């Protein structure tokens, strides 16, 4: 009997394996293997590159968004010809299916949350993510404790082959810093043009690069001349540097020997560490350069050579130069004691936008009058009319329910949704979609780059399937010379960050929809790549529900006229004239330099001129952000209300300059998924920011199906920031 049971079980197991192999042979390529993100590392809610080892290219990726709905990412045009495809995972371990047409190439799930140092894993927002080209410089050992079996607190991705680097800037979405040193020369030499362009666009779009430029810098620039170009180094020369400045900076007890380093340019950037050559000539040893909306921290030393590898303070030096990137996240007491469902500024922004006035409001006086009328109708009036006038008390059993039903109908009618009148397009009012939006547009006049971020929340009173695209106003077209990227994707995901709870990722009740990603051809030239853009087709909205979307645009700005502002010698004050380089009027604007805000007039017209900046009213910029006022013997700061969802402009201010006002110490909220909007690091000596509000929106969400329209009476805010150069003068 046991032998018979064993034979039956073995037979069933063989049949199961046979069926499984048949299914693989019919649907999957057995040689295929899915590569998630960079070395298996990715973030939820961020664009993630997918690479599949196989002979067939990927044209469609099927996964789930943050709401649990099935979404198909179609790669159209030039995006379908490469080795990489891009998708936004909606949750941890979200399902993923790769297809070529109708044929399934491979299927699986995104890696779960875990330790990135042990293999593929989802990287939580509280953990910084670093991509290394070369030697890791011990950053992968931060937080490691072998006695306590504690893994590293920093996620480090160190690809070993050029094919592991994404060919689009989308693949670096969510990366906090990149490290490049001489050990990665072979990798840099093997990168394709698209891969190099992707890294350059990531830096100018808000990334942070840490690069070592020591004795091997000439070979590094030969392998990657684009690095030399973006740093503005025309004639690289090396010199021998005395290590005393580095030893003093790190308070080390382990002496160093003289080392060879690059002569870093002094014309731009902020010097972090100044040393001397062996000839006692002053030279910058470490400098941070602002490039577009990102920055490059350069040190004139090969930290991956034998001398620095054996030096115990090497990691301390890197930590002091890069700021909070290598420091483990610390929980603030104010964050643990707050009473909101979100723990990040992104959650407060989403909660602010997800407020729609669809119900009529009644004051207390109206409610009191209704109650008094009801009491009068079923009390004195019923007694006088039924008993005295008609003389039939039994009719009270009929009059009482009739009065209650009539009053209920009146109140139900008056409490109907606040949708009045006909729409401007002549469509049915029940199909009108409402949208709240916040738009932040950034232009760097120095590097000639521009970007736009828009967070929108769409509300539908009835169930609908929406075809959404990005609309560009005439003002936006006047501001742009060309557009490199126009992407539309879901905003947020389940979790405390965005004010939600973690739920099952699959939702079979909602129909699937499509996000079509395509690369157009520019100027009728097949060798020139056009803008990378997409659209959403058939996005489902349940009745009385909302959906959050975000748009990310990259463009080359077109400014009317601008000139470098002048800084008074020995002070943080500006002088000279100020021109409005925009083709639109700037409302409630101000000019920010270091910690000073020059308040402009209510309307700064397009192409307008202010002859003397020193005639403008000046304010402490950080005091203005925190609404701090000076009293006779002290100062008073307005406390940040984490539960406020009424004013989108205040939330936008915090997103734009969160670190400048003190970060989570002031707001009690973290700033992680939207931290790239923070331009506090650009408030340097060689640049200032012209900021203001625009009367009209630059980009919008438009519905392309023609049957519905988006109302324009919701919350709408458009902010614009222009980074201008500042020139130091010998002063008067």
What does this 3D model show about the protein?
This protein is of the alpha+beta class. Among the domains are: 127-328, Rossmann fold (3-Layer(aba) Sandwich); 364-414. It contains 17 helices and 38 strands. It has a 20-stranded mixed β-sheet that branches. The protein has a 7-stranded mixed β-sheet with strand order 11-10-12-13-18-17-16. The longest helix is centred in the first third of the chain and has 26 residues, at 2-27. The protein is globular, with a radius of gyration of 31 Å. The model is unreliable at 1-31 and 421-430 (pLDDT under 50).
Ordered list of secondary-structure elements with their pairings:
Elements: H1 2-27, E1 33-36, E2 41-42, E3 48-53, E4 60-64, E5 70-77, E6 84-87, E7 95-100, E8 103-109, E9 121-122, E10 129-133, E11 155-157, E12 177-180, H2 185-190, H3 193-204, E13 208-212, H4 217-223, H5 225-230, E14 238-241, H6 244-250, E15 259-262, E16 270-276, E17 282-291, E18 294-299, H7 306-309, H8 314-322, H9 333-336, H10 345-353, H11 364-378, H12 380-390, H13 396-414, E19 433-444, E20 449-460, E21 464-472, H14 474-479, E22 480-490, E23 513-521, E24 529-541, E25 545-557, E26 565-567, E27 574-575, E28 578-579, E29 586-593, E30 596-599, E31 603-604, E32 609-610, E33 617-620, H15 621-625, E34 629-630, E35 635-636, H16 648-656, H17 664-667, E36 687-693, E37 699-703, E38 716-728
Parallel strand pairs: 2-9, 5-23, 10-11, 10-12, 12-13, 13-18, 19-38, 22-24, 26-38
Antiparallel strand pairs: 1-3, 3-6, 4-5, 4-7, 7-8, 14-15, 16-17, 17-18, 19-20, 20-25, 21-24, 21-37, 22-25, 23-24, 26-27, 28-32, 29-30, 29-31, 29-36, 30-33, 34-35, 36-38
Helix pairs in contact: 10-16, 11-12
């Amino acid at each position: 009997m046991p032998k018979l049971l064993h034979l039956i079980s073995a037979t069933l197991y063989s049949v199961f394996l046979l069926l499984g192999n048949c299914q693989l042979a019919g649907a999957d390529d057995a040689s295929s293997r899915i590569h998630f993100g960079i070395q298996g590392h990715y973030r939820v809610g961020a664009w993630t590159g997918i690479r599949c080892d196989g002979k067939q290219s990927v044209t469609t990726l099927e996964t789930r968004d943050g709401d649990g709905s099935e979404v198909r990412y179609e790669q159209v045009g030039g995006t379908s010809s490469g080795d990489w495809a891009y998708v936004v995972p909606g949750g941890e371990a979200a399902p993923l299916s790769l297809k070529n047409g109708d044929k399934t190439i491979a299927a699986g799930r995104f890696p779960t949350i875990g330790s990135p140092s042990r293999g593929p894993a989802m990287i939580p927002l509280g953990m910084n993510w670093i991509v290394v080209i070369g030697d890791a410089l011990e950053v992968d050992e931060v937080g490691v404790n072998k006695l306590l079996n504690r893994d590293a607190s920093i996620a480090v991705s160190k690809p070993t082959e050029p094919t592991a680097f994404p060919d689009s800037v989308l693949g670096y979405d969510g990366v906090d810093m990149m490290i490049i040193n001489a050990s990665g020369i072979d990798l840099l030499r093997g990168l394709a043009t698209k891969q190099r362009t992707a890294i350059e666009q990531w830096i100018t779009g808000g990334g942070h690069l840490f690069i070592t430029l020591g004795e091997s810098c000439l070979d590094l620039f030969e392998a990657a001349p684009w690095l030399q170009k973006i740093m503005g180094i025309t004639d690289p020369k090396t010199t021998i540097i005395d290590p005393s400045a580095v030893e003093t900076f790190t308070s080390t007890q382990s002496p160093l020997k003289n080392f060879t380093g690059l002569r870093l340019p002094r014309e731009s950037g902020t010097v972090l560490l100044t040393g001397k050559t062996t000839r006692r000539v002053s030279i910058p040893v470490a400098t941070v350069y602002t490039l577009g909306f990102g920055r490059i921290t350069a040190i004139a030393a090969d930290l991956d050579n034998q001398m620095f590898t054996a030096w115990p303070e090497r990691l301390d030096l890197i930590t002091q130069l890069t700021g909070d990137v290598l420091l483990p996240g610390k929980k603030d007491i104010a964050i643990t004691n707050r009473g909101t469902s979100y723990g990040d500024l992104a959650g407060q922004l989403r909660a602010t936008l997800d407020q729609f006035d669809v119900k009529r409001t009644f004051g207390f006086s109206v409610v009191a009058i209704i109650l008094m009328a009801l009491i009068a109708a079923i009390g004195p009036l019923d007694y006088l009319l039924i008993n005295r006038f008609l003389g039939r008390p039994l009719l009270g059993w009929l009059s009482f329910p009739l009065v209650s039903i009539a009053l209920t109908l009146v109140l139900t009618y008056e409490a109907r949704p606040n949708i009045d009148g006909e729409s401007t397009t002549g469509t049915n009012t029940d199909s009108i979609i409402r949208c709240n939006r916040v738009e932040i547009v950034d232009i760097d006049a120095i590097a000639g780059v521009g970007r736009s971020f828009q967070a929108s929340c769409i509300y539908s009173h009835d169930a609908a399937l929406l075809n959404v695209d990005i609309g560009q106003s005439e003002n936006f077209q006047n501001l742009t010379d060309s557009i490199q990227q126009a992407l539309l994707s879901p905003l947020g995901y389940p979790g405390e960050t965005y004010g939600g709870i973690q739920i099952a990722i699959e939702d079979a009740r909602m129909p699937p929809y499509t996000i079509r990603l395509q690369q157009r051809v520019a100027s009728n030239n097949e060798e020139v790549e056009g803008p990378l853009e997409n659209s959403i087709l058939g996005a489902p909205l349940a009745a009385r529900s909302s959906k959050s979307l975000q748009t990310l645009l990259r463009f080359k700005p077109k400014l009317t006229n601008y000139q470098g502002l002048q800084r008074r010698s020995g002070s943080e004050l500006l002088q000279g004239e100020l021109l409005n380089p925009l083709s639109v009027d700037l409302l409630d604007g101000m000019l920010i330099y270091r910690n000073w805000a020059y308040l402009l007039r209510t309307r700064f017209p397009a192409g307008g001129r202010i002859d003397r900046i020193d005639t403008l009213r000046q304010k402490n910029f950080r005091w203005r952000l925190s609404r701090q006022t000076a009293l006779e013997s002290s100062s008073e700061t307005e406390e940040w209300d984490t539960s406020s969802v009424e004013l989108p402009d205040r939330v936008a201010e915090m997103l734009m300059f969160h670190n400048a006002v003190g970060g989570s110490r002031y707001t009690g909220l973290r700033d992680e998924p939207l931290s790239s909007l923070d331009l506090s690091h650009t408030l340097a000596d060689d640049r200032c920011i012209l900021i203001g509000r625009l009367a009209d929106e630059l980009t919008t969400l438009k519905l392309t199906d023609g049957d519905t329209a988006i109302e324009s009476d919701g919350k709408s805010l458009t902010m614009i920031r222009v980074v201008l150069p500042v020139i130091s003068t010998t002063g008067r």
